[in-house]
Amino acid sequence: MRHRPRVALAHDYLTQRGGAEKVVLAMARAFPDAPIYTTLYEPATTFPEFAGMDIRTSPLNTVAAVRHHHRAGLPVLPFAASAMKIDADLVLVSSSGWAHGYRTTGRKLVYCYTPARWLYQRRVYLGDTARVGTRVAAAVLSRPLRAWDRRAARSADRYLAISSVVRERIRAVYGIDAAVLPAPPSAVTSLPVQPVDELRAWAGGGDFYLCIARLLAYKNVDTVISAFAGGPRNLVVVGAGPQEPVLRRLATEHILMVKNLTDAQMRWLYRRCRAVVSAAYEDYGLTPLEGAGFGKPSVLLRWGGFLDTMVEGVTCVYFETPDPTQIAAAVDRCEMATWDPDAIAGHVEKLDEAHFARALHGAVDQLLAAGPDPTPLPREAGRT
User: Fold this and answer.
1) Where is pLDDT greater, at 77 or 48?
2) Closest by CA position to 292, among listed 339, 329, 260
């Protein structure tokens, strides 16, 4: 009987409800027998679908403080990953941090969202409001952690990048050539919806624009809020993160901030919104694609992953810099434009989960068929 290859999945941490975690769920559906290895897992704060899966964590997961605030564990999480060994013929790694450092008995295929921002884009990741101690610690630890990170990258057999901008960053940081495989939107338009009670009771009411993001500095949610703060348009912000207290102080009566919503509630928001707005420096950007699935246009920063998947005048309007005045002007252009919901939805159909699963299976089969000693990745990583 032919041996059935053993495939395992690996991810940095499962403690949030973000785009990367949605991609892991898509990977798990593509490889339903594969266990998922991760340093941290907190069922209460990530997607409930993970509860029915085989999740295997590092010993660090027993430390509740790190599990609830993973950024506090950044200096040790890479080494927690290195201490884990995965017994599988192939490990499909989902990473923007340290999961590419897991040791494995077989091949390693890395699906990369970006080389770690906290190592190579510290200012973008931390923002200008980060505590002095945090900035100092990041600077001091940067050199040894970069060395670890590049060794981890060279342990992989192949890299896939989520977008063109990430492909170029992988080449610059690691000296590795990666193929681009876009991630699939996860919002299924045919599933039931659930109203968001805060919105129904909101004094703003009426039509609204939708901004969905982790509340981190590089997402530039503050500039979106500032663009809407004076009215008359309404904005709903969905997300949680370190910048939440600052952003809540910026919010006016025209802005509603909510978090920890179910998928059904997110579908309700997508159906009701006028458009999706993002000023983030996104390496990919799932939310405009999910909004497009519902026939909704987007107002977007002309940068990064948005340029791979969104078409100006068909699915979106762009603005050039994350500036409140530019965002407001782009919203004006969005309102003056005539949009075809069917054309918007049709544009994203080619990025569906079935296509993503087929591409992953093809990459896995190709790597497993290469034999026990495939051509290694370059031994000398690039420098930034």
Assistant:
1) 48
2) 339
